[in-house]
Amino acid sequence: xxxxxxxxxxxxxxxxxxxxxxxxxxxxxxxxxxxxxxxxxxxxxxxxxxxxxxxxxxxxxxxxxxxxxxxxxxxxxxxxxxxxxxxxxxxxxxxxxxxxxxxxxxxxxxxxxxxxxxxxxxxxxxxxxxxxxxxxxxxxxxxxxxxxxxxxxxxxxxxxxxxxxxxxxxxxxxxxxxxxxxxxxxxxxxxxxxxxxxxxxxxxxxxxxxxxxxxxxxxxxxxxxxxxxxxxxxxxxxxxxxxxxxxxxxxxxxxxxxxxxxxxxxxxxxxxxxxxxxxxxxxxxxxxxxxxxxxxxxxxxxxxxxxxxxxxxxxxxxxxxxx
Length: 323
Known about the structure:
The protein is of the alpha/beta class. It is built from nine helices and twelve strands. It has an eight-stranded mixed beta sheet with strand order 6-7-8-3-9-10-12-11, with helices on both faces. A four-stranded antiparallel beta sheet has the order 2-1-4-5.
């Protein structure tokens, strides 16, 4: 029996920015990944590694320099906007800054109704008004906000409540895929847990698929079914969450896990990575991580590793993966 088509797949994606002086910065460097229906793929890595850029490229909010993006079996890489618009109902994004992504001059009800009107979810003036009002009330119930919130402005809410509003807007058109770009990083720890639990509940209730971008490994472990680790524009390790985070095979993944603070008084401090992240404007030969890798060999400086499948099912881009 053939396996079902993935909701989203990307092959050899490259996103390059050209600077004023003629130099180029490769923010996304030959990335390939797959998101199956019902998956929560956690995308993790240091700040500036290209996670957010990749998320925007996958939803065609940015054009890619090369590569291929397939959504629900259709190649959308170079699809015209008029053809792509109906598909946009099926893929939505939740942004990191809950305040900047909401128009402060419009009430919440107007903000949530806008996508319904743009995509013509109801016909006829009276039917449209009734249907939209009913849908807005449903959305408030889904994200656990009172219905009177529809008459208020974004500045009247806390950060966690505004993020719930952003989630409601992403849900308005009943999408299949949601890309969440660090949706809890600006929130208090207690509120983070509430929002992560909301994402998990919505996934079970609505059958959603997520690409969850984060740098907090505890959050990723809580919600993700699979993890992809990104470093300097490329994917260095991917696999089941428990396998990757409990027994990391790539030295960079292991360094990320060792950097997680642990409340152990008097315990041995794990070794930190040495050296700085190389400049993305100066592409180096060999493995992108070899200048900071504690197990690097001369072979690593001259040869680029590719993702290879290990016995436990994960993929690792390393010449000498940790056993």
